[in-house]
């Protein structure tokens, strides 16, 4: 008995069982905390996937000018390989990178090499139709839910393994449904749901999840679609997209500025016949990129480790100058309106004074005429009576 009592005393007391409601709320709270911790990393990965770099064509290893995510893993194409490869697949969504950033192009647009760079031209496209009888073809399409495995690459020499991480998945057009990346959504799916919410605000996520489940069954597959996970992933994607928008606009603006600067340098070099006095475009590009041609920012756009107080003072001065300029225009407009009103009032006052002067003159003339004629006529009338 003593031994049994010792064993019972050494055992820890049983933990109280939590209800299903409290356990669900605890899981939701932990999921929110994990999403909050991973949010900066997701945003950084989303920004890095917009970097163009210097990719090579996957077929001929020439500099690539076209990206097609629907042709993964061979997503990079030069102009000639793009025309040959997408001749039978004109419905693929492609992006050109000749301007330093990804720009969607239509199926009727192709990129050709011209003197001094690349340019876009129109091309003829044939609508894809079903193939003739007695022929076979194979294809897949990402509609609904697919139970797949992440690729795992193993080196036969050193046995090192590699599997795609979040950066690679984002570059491939996928967005995680959880921090563990056990479920993925395509970026096109989330963008389509956002557009549906804008067009039809009453369209619910549960309806959209049911639609995906129905399309999964129509494709001969099975498995539910979690509406809560879809909603959470959509909110995180919307937040990251809103944070990414200013950076995308800045990249495009800087790319346009660099393009115009290079054009002006080329014009100057054509006017200056002496090559020694000309400007080296490559040196200017290297200098403006902060020592790296891969950079898409001007050196003065890099924040660095400057003091935040100094930045705030400079920003306050700039905003004060802009505010004074705006108030100057408003003050001039108000002064012009006030001067116009004073001029109108002066004209009206002059007209009023003139009218009063005319009325007074007419009244004095009548009184003088009556004062001269009344005594004579009265005396004549009295003489006639006598």
From TrEMBL:
UniProt lists compositionally biased (Acidic residues) regions at 377-386
User: Where would I find the CxC3 like cysteine cluster domain in this sequence?
Assistant: 132-214
Could you tell me which CDD domains the record lists for this protein? Bbox1 (cd19757)
Q: Which domain of life is it from?
A: Eukaryota
Provide an example Pfam family for this protein: CxC3
UniProt lists compositionally biased (Low complexity) regions at 365-374
Name the segments for region: Disordered. 1-24, 358-386
Q: Which PANTHER family match?
A: CXC3 LIKE CYSTEINE CLUSTER DOMAIN-CONTAINING PROTEIN, SI:DKEY-29D5.2
Q: Any idea what this protein is called?
A: Transducer of Cdc42-dependent actin assembly protein 1 like
Q: Which organism is it from?
A: Dissostichus eleginoides (Patagonian toothfish)
């Amino acid at each position: 008995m003593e031994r049994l009592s010792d064993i019972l005393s050494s055992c820890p007391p049983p933990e109280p069982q939590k209800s299903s409601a409290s356990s669900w709320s605890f899981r939701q709270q932990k999921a929110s905390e994990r999403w909050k911790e991973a949010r900066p990393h997701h945003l950084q990965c989303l920004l890095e996937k917009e970097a163009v770099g210097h990719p090579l064509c996957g077929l001929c290893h020439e500099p690539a000018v076209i990206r097609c995510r629907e042709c993964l893993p061979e997503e990079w194409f030069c102009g000639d390989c793009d025309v040959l490869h997408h001749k039978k697949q004109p419905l693929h969504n492609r992006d050109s990178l000749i301007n330093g950033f990804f720009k969607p192009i239509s199926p009727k647009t192709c990129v050709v090499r011209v003197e001094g760079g690349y340019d876009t031209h129109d091309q003829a496209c044939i609508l894809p139709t079903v193939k003739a009888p007695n022929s076979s073809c194979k294809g897949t399409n990402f509609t609904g839910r697919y139970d797949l495995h992440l690729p795992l690459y193993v080196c036969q020499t050193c046995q090192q393994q590699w599997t795609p991480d979040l950066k690679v998945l984002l570059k491939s057009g996928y967005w995680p449904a959880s921090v563990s990346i056990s479920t993925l959504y395509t970026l096109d799916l989330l963008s389509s749901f956002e557009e549906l919410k804008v067009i039809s605000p009453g369209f619910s996520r549960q309806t959209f999840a049911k639609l995906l489940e129905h399309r999964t069954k129509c494709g001969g597959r099975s498995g539910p679609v979690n509406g809560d996970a879809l909603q959470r992933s959509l909110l995180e994607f919307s937040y990251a997209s809103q944070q990414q928008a200013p950076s995308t606009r800045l990249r495009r603006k800087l790319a346009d500025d660099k393009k115009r600067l290079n054009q002006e340098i080329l014009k100057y070099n054509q006017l200056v016949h002496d090559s020694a006095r000309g400007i080296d475009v490559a040196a200017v590009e290297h200098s403006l990129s902060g020592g790296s041609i891969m950079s898409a920012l001007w050196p003065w756009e890099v924040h660095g480790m400057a003091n935040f107080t100094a930045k705030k003072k400079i920003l306050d001065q700039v905003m004060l100058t802009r505010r004074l300029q705006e108030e100057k225009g408003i003050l001039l407009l108000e002064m012009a309106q006030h001067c116009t009103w004073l001029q109108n009032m002066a004209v009206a006052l002059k007209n009023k004074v003139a009218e009063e002067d005319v009325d007074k003159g007419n009244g004095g003339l009548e009184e003088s005429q009556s004062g001269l004629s009344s005594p004579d006529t009265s005396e004549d009338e009295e003489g006639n009576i006598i």
